[in-house]
Design brief:
Elements lengths: L1 H161 L1 H6 L1 H16 L9 H12 L3 H14 L6 H14 L3 H14 L5 H15 L3 H14 L4 H15 L1
Helix pairs in contact: 1-7, 1-9, 4-5, 5-6, 6-7, 6-8, 7-8, 8-9, 8-10, 9-10
């Protein structure tokens, strides 16, 4: 009993100490736990700080990269601006050049129009002058022919006065000679005298529509026989060869030579008629009308007069 009592007494006496020890033990455990917690937090903070450094480094790297990119972007923007400015300058230069070229083209077109009008005016004046010249030449030829005919008549009259008796004795012979002359006039397309072969060759070539060869043949005839019996006809054929080749201006000149040099030939009214037809083919109805009228005035009894009259009526209807 005493032992139990002592034990109990000791326990009671030591209780405060035991309680204090337990409390200290618990406090030590708490402090240890707090220390461990602090260590853990320090470790975390160190890790965080390390991470912060890494983040800072990363941010710095990113900032540097951003700066480089911004620099490159600025360079590209500036380069783009310079390119845009250069492009605008080129566009302005091209536009200015195009405007200059347009102005030059307009000026050239104006000059061409003026030149074309001047050429057309000059051509019309030339054609009118040619027509007037042709009419004047025809008039001169007609006057020359009339004077020659008048002189021939006067000479014949004088000769007749001297040889009245001779004419009375041989009336049949004189009549025969006049008939032969008339027959020659009507049959003027029949070649006679020297150069007959050359002339006939030209006619055959013309009928075969070989106008260039025919032209050469008739030119050969006139070269070798300028005063031959068929000279007037050959000259007329030259004009027809040119007319058939639509060389109307040149044909007019050839026909004019027939009118001027062979005014008394039956080919003269034919040449005058073909002149008018050539002017009509050249779309010069006014000039053609003048020449057709000339046929009617100068050769009213010719075969060509009827054709000229018909052509005049046709022109008036257009």
């Amino acid at each position: 009993m005493k032992k139990k009592f002592l034990t109990h007494a000791l326990l009671i006496g030591l209780s405060p100490l035991l309680v204090q020890c337990v409390a200290q033990q618990r406090e030590v455990s708490g402090l240890d736990l707090r220390m461990r917690t602090m260590d853990a937090r320090l470790i975390e903070m160190e890790r965080f700080a390390k991470n912060q450094d890494e983040v800072a480094n990363t941010i710095d790297k990113l900032n540097n990269r951003i700066l480089r990119l911004e620099s490159r972007l600025d360079e590209r923007v500036q380069s783009g601006k310079r390119s845009e400015a250069a492009e605008k300058e080129r566009e302005t230069a091209v536009s200015t050049r195009l405007d200059t070229m347009d102005a030059q083209i307009k000026e050239i077109n104006t000059k061409l129009t003026q030149l074309s009008e001047q050429v057309a005016h000059d051509m019309q004046a030339l054609k009118t002058a040619q027509a007037e010249s042709a009419v004047k030449e025809a008039e001169k030829a007609r006057n020359k022919a009339e004077k020659a005919a008048s002189a021939a008549k006067q000479g014949a009259a004088d000769k007749g006065k001297k040889k009245t008796a001779a004419k009375e004795e041989k009336p049949e012979k004189a009549a025969s000679a006049g008939k032969e002359a008339a027959d020659d006039t009507k049959a003027d397309d029949k070649p006679t005298g020297s150069g007959k072969d050359i002339y006939e060759k030209g006619v055959k070539l013309f009928k075969a529509k070989k106008y260039k060869d025919a032209y050469n043949a008739f030119s050969n005839y006139l070269t070798k026989h300028p005063k031959g019996d068929m000279a007037a006809n050959a000259r007329f054929w030259l004009g027809d060869c040119l007319y058939q080749q639509k060389e109307y201006e040149l044909s007019i000149l050839e026909y004019q030579k027939v009118i001027a040099d062979y005014a008394n030939s039956p080919k003269a009214p034919a040449a005058l008629l073909k002149q008018a037809m050539a002017f009509e083919a050249l779309k010069e109805p006014d000039t053609a009308r003048i020449v057709y009228q000339k046929v009617l005035e100068d050769y009213p009894k010719s075969d060509q007069a009827a054709t000229a009259e018909k052509r005049l009526k046709a022109i008036k209807k257009k």
